[in-house]
Amino acid sequence: MTNRPVEVDNPHFCIVLLTGLGDVVNGLPLVNAIRDAYPRARITWVAEPVPASILEGHHAIDEIIVYRRREGARGLRVLRRNLRSVPSIDITLNLNIYIKSIWPTWFSGARRKIGFGKDRAFDGVWLFSNEKIPPRPRGHNVDMFLEFAEYLNVPVGNPEYALEFSYRERMEQAAYFDTMTGKPVATIIPATATHKKDWIPERWARVADSLEHDLGFEVLIAGGPGEREQSIARDIVERSSASIRWAMTDSVRRLAWTIDGSSLVIAPDTGPVHIARALEVPVIGLFAHTNPWRVGPWRAYHDLWIDNYTEPGAAPDSSNRTPKWESMPTITVEQVLEKVATAVDKYNVTRRKEIRADA
Description:
12 strands
């Protein structure tokens, strides 16, 4: 790789990583590495509203600029004004590969605009960067983001996410978990942004039954406020004989501290998988539509993945991003419960997590 190190003592970096939630979480190891290398740097992050909230209070980020893309021209005007209101930006890192990222990259006004080249970006996005990350096969999203650190000669010794909660959030979390039975908590997150990634409600219900009746978990069902998500969650609750606690919410922050208080999380390919990974909560990922070697929990919990995406006998290939549209039904209840057994044996998930307001 042809590297071009940072040439300014205390640079102002602009991170363009707009969405989704999992991608934004997966950008944190890069930002933490930049902060470690340049403690006096200024770091601005441009994100869309929902994923922006997960960045609140993060020690490595100086300001978050919210791009309300759905507001069209008005959103662009506000974005441009907000980017012009911050001190001069030296280096913009466009970690996105789709056309929506060209506006914050361009409006940043940075002398150095760095992004992926034509080999990995789409929609002409590469035309709006004046420096390109050299070509490589596609990899896991975190590994691709860390190529920016390599390009800038920023060392990445021990990559970390460092998601943080405020004292008030810790108080809310402690109060919430104090209302429970004292059993370990297993949180099911059944719905994704794409219905083809979803699993079957009747099978989720059977998993919930086993978690409560056979293994002694208190079962939560969590996710967002969308009508489809809520409908799927209600269907699972109605089909299950377990006393499932409702934890659906319109707050990404609340969802994150719910995951943090869980002993085990089970989910398909969706942002909370990466929140669980960032918080070091064992997570069973259900992958058949998408490739876990590209979008699964990064360098963790591989033994808990259900990988029905990779063909039997084939080597894992993180460069493969072709969706398998009808594959999620191939995942069985038995496969999930086998992974639960692995989590019990290896990660001690039947022990209730201690929740303290002063954590």
